[in-house]
Write a structure and sequence with these properties.
CATH architecture of the largest domain: 2-Layer Sandwich
Number of strands: 12
Structural class: alpha/beta
Strand content: 5-15%
Oligomer: single chain
Radius of gyration: 29 Å
Distance between the termini: 33 Å
Amino acid sequence: MSSEMDVQRKHLKEKLPALLKLIRDAEFISFDFEYSGIVNDSNRGAFPGKVERSRKPTLEERYQISKESAEKYCVLQMGLCTVAWDPTMNKYVARTFNFYMSPIVHPHLHYDRVFCCTADAMYFHQKHGFDFNKLYSQGVPYLSHSEEAFIREIKRMNEQDLANDIFVDQCELPMLQASRDTIDAWWEENSNDPGAFLNLTPFHQDEVFNGYQRRLIHQMLRKEYPQLVGQSYDRHFQVQPRIEAREADRAKAREQHFENIVDEQRGARLLIDEIMRLKKPIVGHNCFGDLCYLYRMFIGKLPDTLEDFRRLLRKDFGLIVDTKFLALNVDHFLYSEMSSCLQELAIKFGSQELPRIDLQIGSYNFDSQTQDHEAGHDAWNTARALVKLAFRMYYAGSDTPPMPTETSSEVVKRKQEIEEAVAARPPRAGLAKMVELEKTPALARIPGWPSKFWTVFGGRLRVNGTIEGEFTI
């Protein structure tokens, strides 16, 4: 991928305002993930409730497997493609970005994230040119909302713990007594000097106090010298007179330092937060699993049931479109042998003139097959597929998709909406309408989001290999 499209950790802060503006201005955002692994029969083993090989799993069972995958593994790479309409050029303008997602958490947050992967996934990514060095050296940080809450709880507990007394090991008594003697002598001479300070060091000059020893000195000051405070440094422990205003400033500075680190660690989550805040339409390809990973990675723990997951997606996101579902319902009279594979869709519709959609990356050739399975490239192909498919299906006609087969009350309501929208659809315009629109490219756009077209085709995700075959949001 073009280097300007790879967003690196060191550039994220400066690029963030522009990225957020692109999201705000976008008609929709397409996305794609590359995972560190997925749960399957070969790495899951025997477990209660395992789906028998003699039948397809239900959607609920598939959700439980996807949930297990998203909770165990992580996203290695994220692709986002923003798409906006340019009325001056009568075309869609896309900007795609590729993010290596670093699993590393800032050490000052005292949270060590578990990183799991499968050998099959690592081999697959290596075969497709994934740069594992970039993952750690240039990968952008992220922090889910639940992880952030957990980190704040860790901080609160650590601060509470520091105020509690700890056991004093007998072998540390000489160190404490030596420190006490040094402090007494220093304080006797400097008790009237608010700017005075004392640097304590261990007996041997080439040693430093360990964490336990520093904690003991803090404890001694708190109990025996309430008029003094201590500060830990790399090579020494500093004692100063307690000045309340100065201590308040220090506490404020520590809090601000913590907030700055948390804000930096949020990283790529800020983009997802903005998409959620604005309820921007998002587009994926075969994206049921992607949504599970997205929720787990940026929001928090996945709910226990598919129905609760559906409710959360409805609450937190705008319209969600699956280009695989669209491709499976294109007019098969015209495309009887068309594949719904993303790469083949990109090739199939690459020659379709309208609507025009251009990628602003200069001369880089994004049609190169060598870029398949790179998240930014696949996000671009997903955006392109959405524009071409939706336009063709809206103006030239499409198959009528089968009704959802899920039986939950929420899906029953959606089914009624879909049936009413299908009944109200205008007659097929045919390819002649598309030819006519070539004379007026300003009108060659996908149907607006309030259109009945999206009632029929939006919020419906293809889930291959399940009994229901579709997840309806």
